[in-house]
Amino acid sequence: MADNDLSDLTQLPTLLPDTGFLHRKDEHNLILCKPKLMPLKSVTLEKLEKMQKEAEEKLKEQKEQQQS
User: DSSP secondary-structure letter at 41?
Assistant: First the structure.
């Protein structure tokens, strides 16, 4: 008889309300992506800086040649 009492306790009937609304709370879990590494300087910016530096060096060489 003790076994029957335990089986009755484990099986509970589902109760739904006859009136009113049934609310269910939805939980939204955020999924975080891995951070994307961005270069500090773009490739084109590095090329432009290199070209500008070369142009400045050529200009300095030309000035030195004119002075001597």
Answer: S
Q: Which residues, given as ranges, of the chain have pLDDT below 50?
A: 1
d(CA 42, CA 50): 12
> How many other C-beta atoms are found inside a 10 Å radius of the C-beta of residue 46?
12
Q: What is the pTM of this model?
A: 0.41
Report whether 14 contacts 22 (CB < 8 A). Answer: no
Helix residue ranges, H only, the chain:
2-10, 43-67
**Phi, psi dihedral angles at 12 (to 5 degrees):** -95, 140
What's the rounded Cα separation, in Å, for the pair 61 and 32? Answer: 54
What CA–CA distance (Å, rounded) separates 54 from 48? 10
State both tokens at 36: 């994307």
Residue 8 tokens, joined: 């009755």
